[in-house]
Backbone:
């Protein structure tokens, strides 16, 4: 790009978008064929860029291809090394749940209702998670033209046919039951003119299958989950207390965790009969230097802990780059523009004022297509560092009429308005942002990892979504598997005793030179270094 | 660069930063007062004044508010509130129900401080009045976008927690005025009956 800054030149560029709008609204773009799709993915999708990957140097999956950040964290010095345990703060529980997002809270509720004594520890506040940020919705096959089978096939196709079929079947078959549970605990989802759930179509889905609560779906669910948890007085919740490492006995079974109290930096042991990891994904590791749409706490810590204790991982070389992360206005860098904008008819437009992809195809392909436009010179440069393509949001108001954008997407309208950008009138610039970890810990149908008495649920688990998750499947997963894992961990806990605790399993780590001073990484470090 | 004051200390920071980014810029570590970074979680509520500009106290989310010259700020990531204590299961009408659970709502003097402080721009006083009138449906709609940051509770001169009252009204309204999805239950019955089993056997 020449030296002109976008902000000086913006009116002209905006005109290019509005000028071509009418023509674009009449245009229909066919889905790309499989061959074209594969070519674009292989050339432009970050999952295929070898530089981002390396092999695990130790542990059960030694030699497996994973992203460099994860491999380094697994082989970096543990944060509990030489730590003194505050015995007065240590205690015992039946079921220990790590993480206070959608999966963790759901598991806590079901484990408690199954009769177990439950403790939930979480890094930040209860509810602080990617769940609360989910805008799009949940996929559930309740349309008359739909079925769990079609939901299954769509998800398989989207995931590259490598999804764990057993887990995926559980997801799609139990989906409706879980949404009914959410409805029962008070979650309000949008209704249509028949006073029944309004259904929208997500990228890669062949039917209208998304239920949603405006663009505050995750917020609406999370606050109801917290309310439901708070009603149960027996559940012990400890905020601002992340897990440092897991505890194991001499047979390698999990027996609880070492926890840090962020308010005094003390370490304490929670001895537990069963432990559930619901620690979420790892977007804040900024794989490949990409910006991320994730919550501040998404650092992959639970996976590092579990792998070091002997759990297996799958597809830790597959991440979802959400096609439409904001690059302009700049204050919103990395933040998401929900896929629903595209499923409702938002256009992706290059510097020539042209659409270049059917916007409702799977996220991996749409993301790769945007990267392709930018690499081939049809992007719009924001500054020296970031380039993007237009997301024409105003087209939605024209296509749908009235005050559609503001009413249907109040959260997003507000986000941009705070920085002086009216998305009813102006398009925004987008580029793929690191959004979701497709892979993660390997679990069986009960949610148990290869380490006995250690369960996992939510984004920290891999397999269900294959190598590309469809919108709305991850939110659904939290409640389907949150219930399963909560019930199973409680049942196991009712039948076993507390074990002895040690961190001996850490001795198998082979240390390497690392960018991380200790591991796991609990929070990203954004403090300015160039003083 | 602009000059800002954080808890009594002065710093120069670039003007295009958000308040949250300015903490990191000056070298402060954040654990409390930071959350989703996207304006959804309400963890980073910040109170500030702009020196010499106006007499007003402003409230914003640190991740969603740009710094400004002369800004003097403090974060309020937690605010003590009283949640409902006694549940009345069967009460004749909405007003009675609400006033039984939140009797302190009677103390509201309609000053509108809650509405003025809301970083989401909600009509907070409006949804309280609608609730008190028994119009739970309108009240629930007006409070729906609440992110529970608690700034209305901080500002209320008679110590109400409008955010919690809004949450209670939404919960009750859902229970009293909303029908459950029929298509959802129909599908659950079909699955339980095994209607799809033959197809499953073909593909798995």
Residues:
């Amino acid at each position: 790009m020449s030296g002109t800054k976008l902000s000086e030149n913006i009116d002209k560029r905006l005109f290019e978008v509005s000028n071509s709008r009418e023509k674009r609204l009449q245009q229909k773009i066919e889905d790309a064929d499989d061959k074209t799709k594969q070519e674009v993915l292989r050339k432009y999708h970050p999952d295929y860029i070898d530089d981002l990957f390396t092999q695990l140097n130790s542990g059960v999956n030694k030699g497996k291809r994973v992203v460099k950040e994860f491999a380094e964290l697994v082989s970096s010095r543990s944060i509990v090394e030489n730590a003194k345990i505050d015995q007065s703060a240590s205690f015992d529980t039946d079921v220990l749940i790590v993480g206070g997002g959608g999966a963790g809270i759901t598991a806590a509720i079901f484990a408690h209702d199954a009769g177990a004594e439950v403790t939930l520890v979480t890094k930040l506040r209860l509810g602080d998670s990617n769940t609360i940020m989910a805008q799009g919705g949940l996929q559930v096959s309740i349309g008359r033209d739909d079925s769990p089978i079609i939901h299954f096939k769509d998800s398989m196709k989207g995931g590259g046919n490598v999804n764990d079929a057993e887990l995926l079947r559980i997801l799609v078959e139990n989906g409706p039951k879980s949404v009914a549970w959410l409805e029962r605990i008070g979650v309000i989802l949008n209704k249509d003119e028949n006073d029944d759930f309004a259904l929208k179509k997500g990228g890669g889905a062949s039917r209208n299958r998304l239920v949603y609560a405006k663009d505050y779906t995750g917020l609406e669910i999370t606050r109801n989950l917290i309310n439901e948890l708070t009603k149960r007085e027996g559940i012990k919740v400890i905020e601002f207390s992340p897990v440092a490492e897991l505890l194991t006995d001499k047979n390698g079974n999990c027996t609880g965790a070492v926890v840090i109290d962020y308010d005094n930096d003390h370490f304490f042991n929670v001895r537990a009969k069963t432990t559930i990891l619901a620690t979420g994904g790892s977007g804040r590791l900024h794989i490949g230097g990409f910006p991320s749409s994730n919550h501040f706490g998404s650092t992959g810590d639970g996976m590092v802990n579990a792998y070091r204790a002997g759990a297996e991982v799958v597809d830790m070389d597959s991440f979802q780059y959400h096609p439409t992360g904001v690059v302009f206005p700049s204050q919103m860098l990395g933040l998401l523009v929900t896929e629903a904008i595209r499923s409702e008819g938002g256009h992706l437009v290059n510097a020539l004022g042209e659409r270049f992809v059917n916007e409702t195809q799977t996220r991996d392909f749409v993301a790769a297509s945007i990267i392709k436009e930018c690499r081939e010179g049809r992007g719009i440069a924001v500054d020296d560092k970031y380039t993007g393509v237009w997301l024409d949001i105003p087209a939605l108001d024209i296509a749908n009429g009235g005050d559609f954008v503001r009413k249907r997407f109040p959260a997003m309208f507000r986000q941009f308005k705070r920085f002086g950008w009216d998305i009813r009138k102006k398009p925004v610039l987008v580029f793929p942002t690191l959004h979701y970890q497709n892979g993660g810990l390997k679990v069986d149908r009960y949610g148990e990892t290869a380490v006995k008495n250690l369960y996992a649920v939510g984004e920290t688990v891999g397999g269900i979504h294959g190598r590309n998750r469809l919108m709305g499947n991850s939110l659904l997963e939290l409640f389907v598997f949150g219930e399963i894992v909560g019930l199973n961990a409680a049942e196991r806990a009712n039948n076993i005793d507390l074990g002895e605790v040690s961190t001996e399993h850490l001795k198998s780590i082979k240390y390497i030179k690392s960018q991380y001073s200790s591991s796991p990484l609990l929070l990203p470090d954004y403090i300015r270094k160039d003083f | 660069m602009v000059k800002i004051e954080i808890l009594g200390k002065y710093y120069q920071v670039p003007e295009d930063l958000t308040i949250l980014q300015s903490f990191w810029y000056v070298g402060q570590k954040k654990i409390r007062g930071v959350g989703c970074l996207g304006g959804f979680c309400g963890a980073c509520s910040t109170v500030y004044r702009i020196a010499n500009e106006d007499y007003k106290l402003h409230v914003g989310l640190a991740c969603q508010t740009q710094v400004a010259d002369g800004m003097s700020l403090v974060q309020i990531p937690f605010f003590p509130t009283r949640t409902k204590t006694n549940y009345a299961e069967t009460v004749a009408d909405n007003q009675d129900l609400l006033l039984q659970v939140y009797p302190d709502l009677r103390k509201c003097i309609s000053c509108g401080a809650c509405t003025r402080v809301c970083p989401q721009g909600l009509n907070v006083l409006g949804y309280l009045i609608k609730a008190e009138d028994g119009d739970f449906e309108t009240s629930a709609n007006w409070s729906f976008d609440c992110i529970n940051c608690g700034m209305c509770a901080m500002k209320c001169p008679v110590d109400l927690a409008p955010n919690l009252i809004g949450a209670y009204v939404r919960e009750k309204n859902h229970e009293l005025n909303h029908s459950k999805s029929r298509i959802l239950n129909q599908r659950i019955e079909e699955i339980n009956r095994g209607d799809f089993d033959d197809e499953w056997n073909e593909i798995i």
